[in-house]
Structure formats: C-alpha cells, structure tokens
Amino acid sequence: MKIDIRQEAGSFAENKDVARMLRETRIEPALASEEEIILDFDGVEGATQSFMHALISQCIRNHGPEALDRIAFKGCNPTIRKIVEVVADYMQEA
C-alpha cells in the first residue's frame, strides 16, 4: 500500500490529527495484515516531529521495531529523513 503524504497532509506535514487518522485507518490495518507500506513524502518540504510521532510511534509500540521493516519512507529530503530517524530511535529505546 502506498500513502501519498503530500496529498494527505500538504507540503508541510504538521497536522497530528491527519497523521493519527492515517495511522489508524491505513497504516495499522496494513501492518495487522502484514502488508508492505510505502509512505511517500515526495513533494513534502518539511514535517514536524509531532506529526511523525503521531504517524508511526503507536505502530512501533503495537507491532514492535519490526514494524519499521514493513514501512518504507520514500522521497524524504534530509530533514524529514532525520525526523523519521529521531522518532524511530526514540521509540525503540522506550
């Protein structure tokens, strides 16, 4: 499954409610059915750490760090990639 983050959240992903909705309605069900997920950040210029936390933290909490093996982060600029890494590292240490 591919999720177009720009289409869902705009060119600056900051709305935690959108992130939570994506997680609850698309990402979590896909993880539960062991589906591969592509989070496509192409065209997204920036994102907040709180957006990323709302998008993936509960997935890691529910499915363990292995969830990250089934989630691909595509089209991330260096800033977004760093935010993904910070949130993923934090959740794996928690």
What does it look like?
There is one protein chain. The protein has 94 residues and is of the alpha/beta class. The chain has one domain (2-93). It is built from 4 helices and 5 strands, in the order βαβαββαβα. The chain has helices spanning 5-9, 16-32, 49-63, 78-93, and strands at residues 2-4, 12-13, 37-40, 46-47, 71-74. A 3-stranded parallel sheet has the order 1-3-5. Strands 2-4 form a two-stranded parallel ribbon. It starts with a strand and ends with a helix.
What's the short story on this structure?
The protein has helices at about 5-10, 15-30, 50-65, 80-94, and strands at about 1-5, 10-15, 35-40, 45, 70-75. With about 90 residues, it is α/β, with parallel strands linked by helices. The longest helix has 17 residues, at about 15-30.
User: Can you give the helix content as a percent range?
Assistant: 55-70%
Sketch the major β-sheet.
3 strands, parallel
How many DSSP helices? 4
How does the overall form come out from the CA principal axes?
A: globular
Key attributes of the depicted protein:
94 residues, alpha/beta, three-stranded parallel beta sheet, two-stranded parallel sheet, 4 helices
